[in-house]
């Protein structure tokens, strides 16, 4: 597109169909090829060999099938996203967890993917002020992320952490980790919507973290005050607001301001629709992509 930003999708957007077998990953790739999307990000939700997304336990033939399907369809496999947790007091267990992430770096390389996101913690933090817990966890997070980034550099892969999971969701915590790791190929997967989960204004936090963005996630939420319970199907922010996933451009996040910040920063690279709404995921992806493209082109 004319903005220099390549718009596509995270496979997480198709989770409702992939998890039930209604669609297989090759069908998702073909759908993306027929859409206005330009790339697909692979989000690994399980290490199981029978996962619809290639994992380190997958049959090598399946990994090759996915790579060939994407190449044939003209869909770039842009990013591999996995979970990880570096909070453990057992040095041998930490080494095992780091080795697992390195195996996913190898998998990314075999798929022709040059960008990878890994989590750094699995839990959602604690209630109240969790600053002491974050400060205690920081050395382990930084050491593990640095080791992985250095390994990934030998493969030509850029690694990143995402602003999610409450514990490392705030913009300043993400930046602290990036600066402490201090590797040129360690950046952030910048999810524009996730900042509301810790009650930050996305139009402010996005601008602060754009200089470190490896990839941008477009996401939207409906937001209701803490004292206005909308009923079942919503979750709560750190400060108690009620949140529910929305089609990108239909929710309450100030996405026009976010788009202006992205354009003003000069960011070029991949941007993925990450749909978490109640609507049919294909509808949500199609409309979300159109809205994100319009927002960027008119910013």
Spell out the key features of this protein.
single chain, 3-stranded antiparallel β-sheet, 11 strands, 9 helices, 8-stranded parallel beta barrel, 299 residues
Structure description:
The structure is a single chain. An 8-stranded parallel β-barrel has the order 1-2-3-4-5-6-7-11, surrounded by 6 helices. With 299 residues, it is α/β, with parallel strands linked by helices. It has helices at residues 15-18, 25-34, 60-73, 91-111, 131-153, 171-181, 202-209, 255-265, 281-298; strands spanning 5-10, 39-43, 76-82, 115-118, 158-162, 186-191, 213-218, 220-224, 235-236, 242-246, 269-273. It contains 9 helices and 11 strands.
What is the compact description of this entry?
The chain is an alpha/beta fold. 40% of the residues lie in helices and 19% in strands.
Q: Count of DSSP helices?
A: 9
- Beta fraction of the residues? 15-25%
User: Order of strands across the biggest sheet?
Assistant: 1-2-3-4-5-6-7-11
Radius of gyration: 18 Å
Oligomer status:
single chain
* Approximate helicity band: 40-55%
Low-confidence stretches: none
Given helix and strand content, the structural type is alpha/beta
Quick one: how many beta strands?
11
Q: Helices and strands in order, then pairings?
A:
Elements (H helix, E strand, L loop, with lengths): L4 E6 L4 H4 L6 H10 L4 E5 L16 H14 L2 E7 L8 H21 L3 E4 L12 H23 L4 E5 L8 H11 L4 E6 L10 H8 L3 E6 L1 E5 L10 E2 L5 E5 L8 H11 L3 E5 L7 H18 L1
Parallel strand pairs: 1-2, 1-11, 2-3, 3-4, 4-5, 5-6, 6-7, 7-11
Antiparallel strand pairs: 8-10, 9-10
